[in-house]
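Appendix B, example 12.
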Amino acid sequence: MKAVQFSRYGGPEVLEIVEIEAPHPGPGEVRIAVRAAGVNPSDWKRREGQYRAFEEVHFPAALGVEASGIVDEVGPDVSNTYVGDAVFGYGNGTMAEHAVLTHWVHKPDDLPFEIAGALPAISETAWRSLDELCVKAGETLLVSGAAGGIGSAILQLARIRGITVIGTASPQKHDYLRELGAIPTAYGPGLAERVRQLAPDSIDAAIDVAGSGIIPELIAITGDPAHVLSVADFSAEEYGAKFSHGPPKEPERVLADVARLYSKGLFRLRIEQAFPLEKTAEAQIVSAAGRVTGKLVISP
């Protein structure tokens, strides 16, 4: 089968499309014929070596942590999932024609494969971030970098919880934020004053999705580093803020809940572009530029 690998840290040029044997599922796992695999910033950050301080990588290394597809092999000790089932979830090396999933749920018929393959990482990260910050109904949350995949998920899950959300994005994306139930504002100089005008009472919490060096400003806006969390800035804890990272917590529960919300019309995700496997490097270049609205996917 075809798969994406890299044998050294570096830029997108280190990515290779290789022919390897298809993996087989172990106990409690399933293998899928991949229909869509989500592109996440963690993919190119891992490829660049940004995670080497706390994550061991063995070369050649595979890429991709989430996917949707059709089950074509079931491992031992798996119940209620069969060959031919449509599923989506977490795995390793999902940017390939076949991939093994370690955590998954069944895909509703009304949830497209492209969207399902892009849901796991952003929905779990958003759910976990809101829980770790303990943001409550009636409070106001500021999200920095709100138009991307994680930001899109945070806005919607926060809205469902009764939280008012102010999201930063470039002006051309403000209508998108409004569609997701957020109050949009521009990022950049003067953010604190713009936010003060939108939320004169206070900002109860802030989440940094973009990793743009904004942690000190978010602390100043909320008045307390304990009320600030980042999913992208490794230095957040140096300022007393929180840094949230995996592994995912209760992934099956979160995925099942988000799938139900999608079927009820309460959750949506824009897929800005789908790339073939051979253009994974191009997809990572687009992702790293930081201007994606929603998510990108790889469709083998």
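The radius of gyration is 19 Å. The mean pLDDT is 95.
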